[in-house]
Amino acid sequence: MTVGVEVHATGTIPVASAAQPPRFELWHISKGFETPGGFRPVLDGIDLKATSGSFISIIGPSGCGKSTLFNVMAGLEPADAGRVYVDGQEAGGKREHFGYMPQKDLLFPWRTILDNTTIGLEVQGKPRKEARVAAAKLFEPFGLAGFEHARPFELSGGMRQRAALLRTVVQEREILLLDEPFGALDSLTRLEMQTWLAEVWVKYRWTVVMVTHDVREAVYLSDQVVVLSARPTKVRLVKDITLPRPREEALMATPEFAAIERELLEVLHEESRHALQTQRVTV
Ligand SMILES: Nc1ncnc2c1ncn2[C@@H]1O[C@H](COP(=O)(O)OP(=O)(O)OP(=O)(O)O)[C@@H](O)[C@H]1O
Ligand SMILES: [Mg+2]
Q1: Ligand 1, atom nearest to 60 Cα
Q2: What is the pLDDT of residues 159-178, one digit of tens each?
Q3: How many domains is the chain built from?
Q4: How far is ligand 1, taken at its centre, from the CA of residue 279, in Å?
Q5: Whose C-alpha lies nearest to ligand 1, atom 18?
Q6: Residue 162 in contact with residue 178, Cβ under 8 Å?
Q7: Domain containing 276: what range?
Q8: Beta-carbon neighbour count of residue 176 at 10 Å?
């Protein structure tokens, strides 16, 4: 599979290659916030692109702007500068390209799981009946068969996450943005979910961008891992993960896997230390 995430060497506006236009491309995205203490620069010229069907993970120090980047991509917040392209066309603030599973993705406790998973489609204006038929088809592959009419409190943490992911996926957007989808899970459930996600991704071949704090998870699932720097945030490193697929859990115990993990951890720790020092200076 050809996968393309790369940092632009030049400052020219990208032109999609006829051979394989990127599914999406971020060009020089910058974003900051006015705070009581003054302007806080967060994203400082982020360049990124990915081809169709690739799985990209983004790691970076806490507070460096990963969720902000997703909010910009999903059109929830405007960028101060920069452009978002989808299939070579400028997407501007349009939301319809991205299916977004936010960091805190709550299921409504008063709705059944089926009715929770149809919310995105209903917001898009799909009739409820059609939305239910579309969502119901995914309950089996998402390991939720039989729980259509349960309420969220009846589900385990992993099942809730799968329901939240189902709600995102059923909207059939071109690109999925998953912000720490397994962040709240215990390590065993998390491992099960990673294996499950690897399997369903192979089946559906979504283009995925996932934020995670777990370097091992990033390496295991991804074609590429992007490390962001401390604020003001730039792309610090883009690492191709060429480990063979399908990937078994045992791969994580191999020296090749460990070497990639170590390299990424070193860069991440360096940036996290830098972020802590900067915070101390600016707080
Ligand atoms: N609406 C806002 N107003 C002011 N500052 C904001 C706003 N949203 C985010 N920020 C600031 O922007 C920075 C990046 O926040 P963001 O939530 O994107 O970080 P993150 O990388 O997702 O962090 P984490 O890993 O902890 O989830 C932080 O310093 C945060 O305080
Ligand atoms: Mg975040």
Answers
A1: 21
A2: 999 999 999 999 999 899 99
A3: 1
A4: 13
A5: 65
A6: no
A7: 1-92+210-283
A8: 22
